[in-house]
Amino acid sequence: MKHKMQILQESADVLGPLCVGLDTDPSYLPPSVLSGFRSPAQAVLAYNKELIKGIAQSKSACCFKIQIAYYEAMGLEGLAAYAETLKAARKSGLPVISDVKRGDIAATADAYARAHFSGDFETDIITVNPYMGFDTLLPFTEYCSPSKGGKGVFVLLRTSNPGTADIEQKELKSGKRVLDAVGDGLLSLCGEWKKDYPEETCFPIGAVVGCTGESDAKCLRKTYPDIFFLIPGYGAQGGAARIAAALLENAGGTVNSSRAILCAWKKDENLERQRNDGTLGLDDIVKSAVYVAEISKKDLLEAKADFLH
């Protein structure tokens, strides 16, 4: 049995490194589309479902990442849309990452793990926050075992926001940075899984490493060669493809793009007339999003090729 991170790594090898983020806020949809549904949550769900189909058919991405916050913000109906989006994404055959960044102690962490690795919100891989200690991650990593479905976990290591300097980059008395200490814990955690998956080419536990810090990219990839990366920050956050490419060596990774794809219709020259007269339809914005996904995939693959050669 392959664990979910191995399946994601193989998907990235075949389909390219792009991850499509379904961080779908109602404001990302034009009024002409929103008005066709009884609620913003229903409009978001319809967009997600059609976009998932389009991405899967075009083979422009290796996985989907769904950020739960956007759905929580829409209340109970939003959480229902989240559950249905998860089902549609998993049905597509592509791996699914739930961006939930959970991290709490004891029984609370166990409840979070059950919530996202089983039941209505079941997913393949989740993001977790290690800053309350690595013992808080054990209820999540238990689900990485073959007996519990071989789920995957991405641990926050180096994020893509400017505030990374506030904590992650702080120097400790040892001379290491805080993120280096997190990395040491991550390596220790990964080492425990060698016996369960001796033939796999990556661990079921990966790391979140943003591509907005060029100076860190090569160093982090060299330090953690066998760990698969989830790479945010590309596209709307300003991360360049060349930085992402430096993180794709060795065990590789998947590069997330959300707003640049979801909001592609806003900059699509072919849709200028429909934008101006308010006649944009669901098909229009989906086609525009899929096209940008295809361009993004090409951009990342070219940058990777340039970096390797």
Automatic annotation (TrEMBL):
<feature type="domain" description="Orotidine 5'-phosphate decarboxylase">
    <location>
        <begin position="17"/>
        <end position="274"/>
    </location>
</feature>
<dbReference type="InterPro" id="IPR011995">
    <property type="entry name" value="OMPdecase_type-2"/>
</dbReference>
<dbReference type="InterPro" id="IPR018089">
    <property type="entry name" value="OMPdecase_AS"/>
</dbReference>
<dbReference type="GO" id="GO:0006207">
    <property type="term" value="P:'de novo' pyrimidine nucleobase biosynthetic process"/>
</dbReference>
<dbReference type="InterPro" id="IPR001754">
    <property type="entry name" value="OMPdeCOase_dom"/>
</dbReference>
<comment type="pathway">
    <text>Pyrimidine metabolism; UMP biosynthesis via de novo pathway; UMP from orotate: step 2/2.</text>
</comment>
<dbReference type="InterPro" id="IPR011060">
    <property type="entry name" value="RibuloseP-bd_barrel"/>
</dbReference>
<protein>
    <recommendedName>
        <fullName>Orotidine-5'-phosphate decarboxylase</fullName>
        <ecNumber>4.1.1.23</ecNumber>
    </recommendedName>
</protein>
<dbReference type="GO" id="GO:0009220">
    <property type="term" value="P:pyrimidine ribonucleotide biosynthetic process"/>
</dbReference>
<dbReference type="Pfam" id="PF00215">
    <property type="entry name" value="OMPdecase"/>
</dbReference>
<keyword id="KW-0665">Pyrimidine biosynthesis</keyword>
<keyword id="KW-0456">Lyase</keyword>
<keyword id="KW-0210">Decarboxylase</keyword>
<comment type="similarity">
    <text>Belongs to the OMP decarboxylase family. Type 2 subfamily.</text>
</comment>
<dbReference type="InterPro" id="IPR013785">
    <property type="entry name" value="Aldolase_TIM"/>
</dbReference>
<dbReference type="GO" id="GO:0004590">
    <property type="term" value="F:orotidine-5'-phosphate decarboxylase activity"/>
</dbReference>
